[in-house]
Every structure is written in structure tokens, then in C-alpha cells.
Amino acid sequence: MSDRYQSLLLFGPPGVGKGTQGKLLGSIPGFVHLATGDIFRALDKNSELGQQFMAYSSRGELVPDELTIKVWRNHVEHLMNDGCFDPERDVLVLDGIPRSLNQAKTIGEHIDVLAVIHLECPDINEMITRMKRRAEQQGRHDDADENVVRKRFEVYKDETAPVLSCYDASLVTKINPIGTPAEVLMNILKVVVPIYSKNFANPLA
Ligand code: AMP
């Protein structure tokens, strides 16, 4: 087995439902959900790192690559030390990373991408509505301001969407994110369950 972590990427624009689907997948034995946005939001807001995150995210910008990869690596190590991630048994479900070509290159040294789930939403207004709702429900500062939301979409188009070109087309599956969480999950599972079963033993056996 390769010494890189076998991973599934949840890919798509802000508000498309990566977090919802990542959490659902992460509740299945053998799937470990890791969302960089959640890791950043869990930082102490008064720490230097927390302040840096707030500065970038409140403008709708990406946190610099080097910092992001460092935080990601630390988190993976913590998950392993805490017994929450065992690379022999679990697939990592990466949500929100890589988000730039540089991140894709760097993280590529640590992960083996088994599949890319591309949640593609043609209707930007649907996304903006979802994000406004989420901002109210979760108190997210970066989704409350429409200008910041629009900036997040611009950053997605310019910096993140090109990341798809790093992966062989055979690894990428487009999934329609419009539907109930259960419907979207069903369509994702149709893709990822055979891949999981091919690469891992039953984690409960
Ligand atoms: P998210 O919850 O995934 O929408 O992320 C919220 C914010 O966290 C983003 O707008 C960025 O400022 C920051 N962030 C999350 N993931 C990354 C990443 N991979 N690279 C850089 N910044 C990130």
C-alpha cells in the first residue's frame, strides 16, 4: 500500500453542500471527514492563526497555501494520534481542500486521490440563497455579506475550479447537488462505495 492517505475529494463551489455531504459520509465507519473551513473556524479567534484566518475569510479570500497545508497536516496527525483516522482502515473525505493549484501539488505528496466528487451547481442564485440561509443559521461572518459571497465565487472560479484539471477525468464524477441531502448522498454513495470496497476491508469485521 502507498504511504499516502487514500482520499476522496468533495469538490464544488461555496454553498453547494460539501459540508452536509461530508458530515453524512463521515458518519459511516471507514470514512473520515475533514473540512479545512471547519478546522479554521475552530481556531481560537484571539490566536495569531485565528486572526489571520478571520482577516482572509472575512474578505472572501483564501488563506495562504503554506499556512493551509500546515494546518491540514497538523490536523491529520492529531486525528491519527487520537485514533480517529487509521490510513489502513479509513478513507479521508476531503472537503474544501485542495483549493488552488499549488495546494493540489503539495497535498498530492500526501494523498492518493481515489475519486473526485464534483458537486456542480449551474445556478449561482440558488447557491447565494443557500449561503444566506446558512449565514443566519450558523452565524457565519463570511456568508452574511453578499459582496463577500460574490468574492468567494470569483475566487472559486479563478483559483479553485482549475484544480479539477490536476485529476484524470476518469476519477471525476459530476453529481447534481440539488435534491434532499439523502438523494444527493445516495448518488455519491453509488460512486464511492464500490471504490471503498475495492480498496479497504470491512472496518467492522
Ligand atoms: P469553507 O467553510 O470551506 O467555505 O471555508 C471558509 C473559508 O476558510 C474560506 O473562504 C477560506 O478563507 C478558508 N479556507 C478553507 N479552506 C481553505 C483552503 N483549502 N485554502 C485556503 N483557504 C481555505
Structure write-up:
The chain is an alpha/beta fold and 205 residues long. It has a single domain, classed as Rossmann fold (3-Layer(aba) Sandwich), CATH 3.40.50.300. It is 50% helix and 15% strand. The protein has helices spanning 18-26, 36-41, 48-57, 65-81, 101-107, 124-138, 141-144, 146-160, 181-199; strands at 5-11, 31-35, 91-95, 111-119, 172-175. The chain has a five-stranded parallel β-sheet. The radius of gyration is 16 Å and the shape is globular. Bound molecules: adenosine monophosphate.
Give the secondary structure arrangement, pairings included.
Layout: E1 5-11, H1 18-26, E2 31-35, H2 36-41, H3 48-57, H4 65-81, E3 91-95, H5 101-107, E4 111-119, H6 124-138, H7 141-144, H8 146-160, E5 172-175, H9 181-199
Adenosine monophosphate binds next to helix 2 and helix 3.
Describe what is shown at a glance.
With 205 residues, the protein is an alpha/beta fold. The protein has helices spanning 18-26, 36-41, 48-57, 65-81, 101-107, 124-138, 141-144, 146-160, 181-199, and strands at residues 5-11, 31-35, 91-95, 111-119, 172-175.
